[in-house]
Sequence to fold (245 residues):
Amino acid sequence: MQECQGESRGEKKDVLEKSELEDMTTSGSRDFNIDVAEIIEEAYERCGLEVRTGYDAKTARRSLNLMFADWANRGLNLWTVEQATLTLTQGQAQETLGADVVDILEMALRRDGTDYEMDRISRGDYLDFPNKTSQGRPSQFYFDRKIEPVINLWQTPENSTDQLVYYYVRRIEDADTLTNTTQVPFRFYPCMVAGLAYYLAVKRAPERVQMLKMLYEEEFQRAAEEDEDRVSLMLVPDGRYMRGC
Fold:
């Protein structure tokens, strides 16, 4: 009898806990964001430190911007890819782009509503063209990665109506003030905070550098592997090796 009563009380407790769980509601929001001040605060805490002075915040903000610069060297960040259009000028083979252009990914020449793919060539290949002023429909370009990058076209544009349509990697916006949010998708928040903590540890908490560096690299690798196009793989055989068929 007592055993039955115990089982009954246990069943009632399970039912009550289940009922309480069903009554709980989620937030319904998916807009979590953190500003620069919160990023810095979290990074300092991972170093076992606190933000105490204005200089603490200033040096952290500088490190954050240096880290963003490093991200441009680590590979393609899809959220920084943008499309642009540039109208050409007849007889002008060079076009200067803004300093925020990190790299050109793809380019096409648009004429009368039709896009023609353009090939990217090296500095040496461009130099080999004997007549760089020869006018025609541009089919190749050399991207000179100066501080203000320059597109060198071949052939030289033959009209002022053609357009260049291209995808480019744009520099990540700076973290200028503590109230700014960052131009980083939420998928990279853990990586961003881990990276800043590592950068700060180099200056303020050397005993934690190794641990924070390892965590940062793991977070970055995980985020970078997620930040890629998911497309089907298509292999096209080279006809030169199919002569025996």
Notes: The chain is about 40% helix and 20% strand. The mean pLDDT is 90. The chain has two domains: 36-76+173-226, 78-170.
